[in-house]
Specification:
Helices cover 19% and strands 40% of the residues. The chain has helices at residues 2-21, 27-33; strands at residues 36-38, 47-51, 56-63, 69-73, 80-82, 87-89, 102-110, 114-124, 132-140.
């Protein structure tokens, strides 16, 4: 029994050292590295975002990819990089049903100062007419 106890103690010390090395216990260090997250609502008008050059924000949009509907950026501004492949993830608070709603994520990163509007259309890939659209007004300084 003694060797098993030593292994548990060693594993606990190792895990603690890893957490310290990764600034796990320092909330201010973690807060600085995480981008802000916005969830624009198509029914509430344009969402407004203020970014510093070099910073980024995550846009979360509800999608139902099982039906073929996904969000597509309509315009690509020069001063904002948009992650070209939206990542579909299930909402962490819900157990996703097969064919159910999920969230599509886009990263917007300011590369230079300026004001621009970005539009995301909710449509099928083969369709030109969107079911709904979201506008995000971005001011980069």
């Amino acid at each position: 029994m003694v060797p098993a106890r030593r292994i548990h103690v060693r594993l606990a010390i190792f895990a603690f050292a890893v957490c310290l090395n990764a600034n796990f216990f320092d909330a201010s260090a973690n807060a600085q590295t995480r981008p802000d997250v916005i969830q624009p609502d198509p029914d509430r008008g344009p969402a407004r975002v203020f970014l510093s050059v070099g910073s980024d924000v995550i846009v979360r949009l509800p999608a139902n990819p099982g039906t073929g509907y996904m969000w597509f950026p309509r315009n690509l501004p020069r001063n904002i990089l948009i992650n070209p492949a939206g990542v579909v993830r299930s909402p962490p608070s819900q157990s996703p049903a097969v064919g159910g709603w999920e969230e599509q994520l886009f990263e917007l990163k300011a590369t230079s100062a300026g004001v621009t509007s970005i539009f995301f259309d909710y449509r099928r890939a083969y369709s030109d007419s969107p079911e709904k659209s979201v506008q995000i007004d971005v001011t980069a300084q």
